[in-house]
Specification:
It is a multi-pass membrane protein. The chain has 1026 residues and is mainly beta.
Length: 1026
């Protein structure tokens, strides 16, 4: 009993001592078990506290019953009560609410709660996890209001990024800034996705702080940065995959082809060419051209920092071979990045960013009539790939050649070395003022080499560069002498330098608990200097790519050789100011004014002013607002003006580059004439934008954002074809640019995010975005009914237009109403259709005059638009006890596509739907007869227009992260293995290779000439961190 009393007395003394002088030691970790340096630990109700060290450790004097609050940016704050423990481990959970997320806006940052404009953000992890070949492809379906269409799925191909629709038939590319340095759309893909911290998209008038370049929206990319007081950490990511064609066209096989060709010849009154049609399957040209190809990427990042310095260093390699073209179609990219931030003196910080990339691209002819895939579709299945030791010729057609022979004779290579840098100095003058000055540059050196060997694809082929099968050179007449023109090589070296200098002052002050004022004022200078040399040399020795160099030319006297060069400069000088006022954290208003002076425009309109006003109201903070379901609700509105100066340089000047002939003393003398009149009143395109937005949060887990916008673009930059007296262009010159034409985009954007973390350990997140868009031309240049666009087929009807009352690039042609079944039906019809025969397409008399007018445009009508009505993206992710699953689905609905890859020639192969052609009365009312005779079935009509709507599983991924108990023993913080698939399947009714059909020219969008499709990719990878 005495011993027990003594023990209790000892314990009581210890508790009394702890109550007076106790302390607690602990470690703060994230959900993955990694230490969080710099986390704050504060005793509630006091000013006593501390922060964690590099290993997340802390020690703090406490008393039993004290409450400690643990917090860190981006994580949910935790509060706990100290009992008798002396050691504790705290795991912070990432915030699910997005209200406190930091959004990068023009020349500053803001939380989502503070925003008054329409801004969307995607984190770098969401981009890198997609494992897409290009950064622009990884953005597809991730952000509302952002439409991305693919120009080509080939290695090193490009996409179109459109923010809130097409505003012009000129340059619709958004302004892209990477760490404050201007990039072009192609340069965006030079970035390593693993280097991205965040991508922020400014969609409304608040982008007007960038003035004359903001009309098409602004994309701000921030690369990764290190953290102060952070031990060096290494991250490595790697994947390897195989690619294949997701789908192939349903074409005729050899037997079907022979039967249908014979039928067409017989119907046209000609002798059928095939005596025997029992030819089996024949050559499947798609199987010969498409192949399985590898894709891989390997990346490493090192992050760390000391008390005054932080750094992030990254490097990577990406390689992709094409599913068409073998080693003649591939892309490689090497990346390196350094992001270094240091406090060089109290309150003075220096940020240095260096990006380097080296790219090599090999390409094949693609995306047009005469491309490899166009020839693949139309090549005869009755012809073999080879005949003896040569390629087959595919005779009887001039513009269809053997695609395998075409690939073998293609040598197109380009190398791009890109160096980007930024130096930024920031000084905190006091608690309210700070000043920033930065200088950036973006330099690219581009080398191109294209070798064209002597090639013979068959008699009469347009693509032939040799006289005959023996590859004898073509003879050309030079000054009355016949000279052989042999193999040639084109070489070019171009350099592109953009540079900018900016300085701006920031002000932020709260005068009391109710009033807060923020402001930004600054100046900006942008310039570029581009130059290049190029040359073409003929008669390369031995017809061999190994000798493909201009210096190796053996052309007699150099008569055939050609050279060229260019040089250009541009300048943009700007000043801007932004003022913001916030009252009670509930009401906010912001105003922006930017003044730009651009060298692209005439002296009468060189200076432009671009104002914007916006405001916000947090309704949920009002006393009258009471809702258990809605935690946050904010109303936003903005209106402003921005511009677009993206045209060629000095278009306002008159040029003396026209060719003319004059008579002097009865002799005709060649000379120059005014080819382009000057236009000193030329100015930028102006875009007026109105946006009304609503943000709210439900049950703390659901974030909802909605925007309604009107985007009105005026004074479009345009080159009209006018009379010679007013500025017509002659040989060697171009028409003047004028400002004419208006376009309006209206739409609705929705973004919904739901995230939850269950006690069971299941974490679930879903993100959904939706965009509705209506595009209309509201004005065309005076004196014009429309501007013509793309042609159908080879020299066929103009199929697209820019015309008032319709979307940009809408499809126009004849509307059909089934098939003529009998001659009696034709004879008794109240509408006369010239040259109609039973089995032909039956056209609609649009103008009601009783005649189908093929000679004019009176019966042409709207057939569809390449612009989707709806864009949707769905992103799902779930993880449980180390296992994770994610999926990304993208859908575009309501657009049409022109099927322009079918060559309308008797011997060209055909789509398999022709098996169900009209062969007699009642056999079909959809597919016309086949004939070599005269018919109107090949004129452009809705028969060649298809619904282009589609939904695609862009990415699906399953992964497993090894438990800490396994990896920690070998010094690895985390290790994850995964398998994934890109473009696993596509739901669509479109018959072509890929319904995601884009074009850099808005008037050519949706016209499918045999697009190089995006590949299906199956891959496996790993990520680990030390």
């Amino acid at each position: 009993m005495k011993k027990l009393f003594t023990l209790l007395l000892f314990l009581g003394l210890q508790l009394s001592l702890f109550a007076q002088t106790g302390s607690i030691r602990g470690q703060v970790l994230d959900e993955r078990g990694d230490p969080i340096p710099g986390a704050s630990i504060l005793k509630v109700g006091t000013t006593a506290g501390t922060v964690t060290d590099l290993d997340g450790n802390f020690t703090l004097a406490v008393l039993p019953g004290d409450q400690l609050r643990v917090s860190f940016v981006g994580y949910e704050t935790q509060t706990f009560t100290v009992r008798s423990q002396t050691e504790i481990t705290i795991r912070l959970v990432e915030e699910t609410s997005s209200l406190n997320e930091v959004i990068v806006v023009g020349y500053g940052t803001a939380t989502k709660k503070e925003l008054t404009g329409a801004v969307s953000q995607i984190k770098g992890e969401a981009v890198a996890d997609m494992n897409m070949p290009r950064l622009d492809q990884a953005l597809q379906g991730k952000l509302s209001g952002v439409t991305i269409t693919t120009n080509s799925g080939a290695p090193g191909g490009t996409s179109n990024i459109r923010i809130r629709g097409l505003g012009t038939f000129g340059n619709n590319n958004p302004l892209i800034l990477v760490d404050g340095v201007i990039f072009d759309a192609a340069g965006l893909n030079s970035l390593n996705p693993n280097d991205i911290e965040s991508i922020n998209v400014l969609k409304d008038a608040t982008a007007g702080i960038y003035g004359v370049r903001a009309a098409n929206g602004v994309i701000i990319v921030e690369t990764k940065k290190g953290s102060k007081n952070q031990k060096p950490s290494l991250e490595f990511s790697s994947y390897y995959g195989v690619q294949q064609a997701e789908r192939k066209l349903n074409l005729l096989n050899a037997r079907e082809y022979a039967v249908l060709v014979n039928e067409a010849f017989a119907a046209g009154g000609n002798l059928p060419p095939f005596a025997n049609t029992n030819l089996g399957v024949g050559t499947d040209w798609q199987s010969e051209v498409f192949q399985t190809a590898p894709i891989q990427e390997h990346m490493v990042t090192v992050n760390g920092g000391s008390e005054k310095t932080s750094y992030s260093i990254g490097g990577g390699y990406f390689g992709q071979q094409g599913i068409v073209g073998g080693d003649r179609s591939n892309f490689e990219r090497y990346n390196a990045r350094i992001n270094f931030i240091t406090e060089i003196a109290p309150k003075i910080k220096l940020t240095s960013v260096f990006l380097y990339s080296h790219e090599r691209t090999s390409g094949i002819p693609q995306g047009g009539i005469g491309s490899v895939l166009f020839n693949t579709i139309n090549a005869y299945p009755t012809e073999p790939v080879r005949v003896g030791n040569r390629f087959s010729f595919l005779e009887n057609v001039q513009d269809i050649i053997n695609p395998i022979a075409q690939i073998e004779n293609t040598f197109n290579d380009a190398w791009v070395n890109k160096i980007v840098g930024k130096q930024e100095l920031s000084y905190e003058i006091n608690d309210h003022f700070s000043i920033n000055g930065r200088a950036g540059y973006n330099f690219a050196l581009v080398d191109v080499k294209a070798f064209s060997p002597l090639a013979w694809f068959g008699p009469g082929k347009f693509a032939n560069s040799a006289r005959n099968e023996n590859l004898d050179p073509v003879l050309v007449d030079v000054g009355g002498t016949l000279i052989e023109r042999g193999a040639s090589v084109f070489e070019a070296r171009d350099s592109f330098l953009d540079y900018n200098f900016e300085a701006f002052l920031n002000y932020d002050r709260s005068f009391d608990s109710d009033n807060r004022v923020k402001g930004t004022a600054g100046v900006s200078y942008f310039g570029n200097r581009n130059m290049g040399l190029n040359g073409t040399a003929f008669n390369i020795p031995n017809n061999d790519v190994r000798f493909a160099d201009i210096s190796a030319s053996q052309a007699p006297g150099g008569f055939l050789n050609q050279t060229g060069s260019f040089q250009s400069m541009q300048k943009l000088v700007s000043a801007f100011v932004r003022g913001e006022y916030e009252y009670k954290g509930r009401y906010s208003v912001s105003g922006i004014l930017r003044r730009d002076g651009s060298s692209n425009f005439g002296p009468n309109n060189r200076i432009g002013y671009f104002p914007t006003i916006s405001g916000g109201w947090i309704i949920s903070d009002e006393d009258f607002f009471s809702s258990k379901a809605i935690d946050f609700m904010k109303l936003r509105a903005s209106f402003g003006v921005s511009g677009n100066d993206q045209i060629g340089l000095f278009r306002f000047r008159g040029l003396m580059n026209g060719l003319a002939r004059y008579v002097f003393n009865d002799f005709i003398v060649n000379g120059a004439a005014i080819g382009t009149f000057s236009n000193p009143d030329l100015k930028w395109e102006t875009t007026l934008q109105t946006n009304i937005g609503l943000d709210f949060t439900l049950f703390r887990d659901v974030d909802f954002t909605a925007n309604y916008f009107i985007k009105d673009t005026r004074d479009l930059l345009f080159q009209p074809e006018v009379s010679a007296l007013l500025g017509s262009y002659g040989p060697g010159s171009f028409p003047p640019f004028i400002n004419a034409g208006n376009v309006t985009n209206r739409g609705i954007e929705l973004e919904v995010a739901y995230a939850t973390k269950r006690p069971s350990g299941v974490n679930f997140r879903v993100d959904y975005n939706f965009t509705y868009l209506r595009n209309r031309v509201t004005k065309v240049p005076e004196g014009l009914d429309f501007i013509p666009g793309a042609a159908f087929g080879v020299g066929g009807n103009i199929a697209t237009r820019f015309q008032e009352g319709f979307p940009i690039g809408y499809f126009v042609g004849f509307k059909t109403d089934g098939i003529w079944q009998t001659q009696e039906e034709i004879n008794s019809s109240p509408v006369v259709q010239p040259d109609a025969r039973p089995g032909d397409l039956r056209f609609v008399d649009v103008n009601g005059d009783g005649v189908i007018n093929f000679s004019d445009e009176s019966d042409l009508t709207f057939l569809g638009s390449p612009i989707p009505d709806f864009i949707m993206g769905l992103n799902l992710s779930v993880d449980y006890k180390g296992f994770d699953f994610s999926a990304n689905i993208y859908a575009a609905l309501g657009q049409e596509i022109i099927r322009n890859y079918e060559r309308q020639q008797p011997f060209a192969n055909k789509m398999a739907y022709n098996v169900n052609r009209w062969t007699g009365p009642g056999t079909t009312n959809e597919i016309p007869r086949l004939t070599t005779g005269q018919t109107r079935n090949a004129v452009f009509s809705d028969f060649f227009v298809e619904d282009g709507s589609f939904a695609r599983l862009r990415n699906v991924q399953i992964g497993y992260t090894l438990p800490d108990s396994m990896t920690g023993k070998v010094g690895i913080r985390s290790m994850r293995f995964y398998i994934a698939a890109n473009n696993l399947f596509t739901l669509t009714r479109y018959m072509g290779f890929d319904p995601d059909v884009g074009s850099g020219n808005p008037l050519f969008a949706g016209v499918d000439n045999g697009i190089f499709p995006q590949a299906r990719v199956i891959m496996g990878g790993l990520n680990f961190r030390f």
